[in-house]
Design brief:
- It comes from Phyllobacterium phragmitis.
- It is found in: Cytoplasm.
- Keywords: Cytoplasm, Oxidoreductase.
- One of its GO terms (molecular function) is oxidoreductase activity.
- It holds the Pfam family Nitroreductase.
- This protein is α+β, with helices and mostly antiparallel strands.
- Helix 2 runs antiparallel to helix 6.
- Strands 1, 2, 3, 4 and 5 form a five-stranded antiparallel sheet that branches.
- The chain contains seven helices and five strands, in the order αβαβααβααβαβ.
- The protein has a single domain, classed as NADH Oxidase, CATH 3.40.109.
- The protein binds flavin mononucleotide.
- Flavin mononucleotide (FMN) binds next to loops.
Length: 195
């Protein structure tokens, strides 16, 4: 497991040179989310998995929304980043179902304050599971956050239920560049073990 987790890195240089087919990738992503833990096994994580032209359409929404808000001097760089995400094979949109959060709050009043945070934590676990699963299949990915800028357009385009809240976007594809060097802060600042 640790070896597998170590393979997961941020990859911005994406391409379409992957051996795996869309059906297999789709099922890996679904299974990674199914197997991820959720508070009270509430299974509030949702995903929309986009391949090919559907993924392209998603990144076109991002481009159009960025054009609306960014000043010219920032726009060029941001659009260049988006082009790299769009150059991949697909994109996973991660949502959390707010109805699930609400229902849990009704059902378990003493934990009511916790459920929004637990929903976010569950989403993070699902994101990591998908990212690591893709990495172990040799597929590169990164984690992006263009929400809430794009939420309305995404909702219209893919008929997303209103209670699904977009939390993250994960473009994926072939690894077209080595991963960046990663440094680690000293263990003494992060961990304590008592025995
Ligand atoms: C909660 C969270 C939010 C992140 N948001 C972004 C993001 O918006 N854009 C991005 O390029 N990377 C994002 N990342 C990825 C981190 O920048 C990246 O994981 C970190 O720099 C370590 O690099 P690695 O993924 O190669 O291990 C996010 C990661 C986490 C855990």
């Amino acid at each position: 497991m640790l070896e597998q987790l170590t393979k997961r890195r941020t990859q911005y240089a994406l391409g379409r040179n992957i051996g795996a087919g869309e059906e297999a990738i789709d099922e890996w992503i679904r299974e990674a989310i199914r197997q991820s833990p959720t508070a009270f096994n509430s299974q509030g994580s949702r995903a929309i998995i986009l391949f090919g032209e559907q993924s392209q359409a998603f990144w076109e929404i991002v481009r159009n929304e960025l054009k609306e808000i960014l000043p010219a001097e920032m726009l060029e760089q941001s659009l260049a980043k988006v082009d790299r995400f769009a150059a991949g094979v697909g994109t996973v949109l991660f949502f959390e179902d707010q109805r699930t959060v609400h229902d849990l709050q009704q059902q378990w009043a003493i934990f009511a304050d916790h459920f929004p945070a637990w929903s976010e934590q569950s989403s993070g676990m699902a994101q990591l599971a998908v990212w690591a699963t893709l990495a172990n299949a040799g597929i590169g990915a990164s984690l992006q956050h263009y929400n809430p800028l794009i939420d309305v357009k995404v909702q219209q385009m893919w008929d997303v239920p209103e209670n699904w809240k977009l939390r993250a976007q994960m473009p994926f594809g072939s690894n077209e560049a080595p991963f960046n060097e990663k440094s680690f802060m000293p263990d003494e600042m992060r961990f304590r073990t008592y025995r």
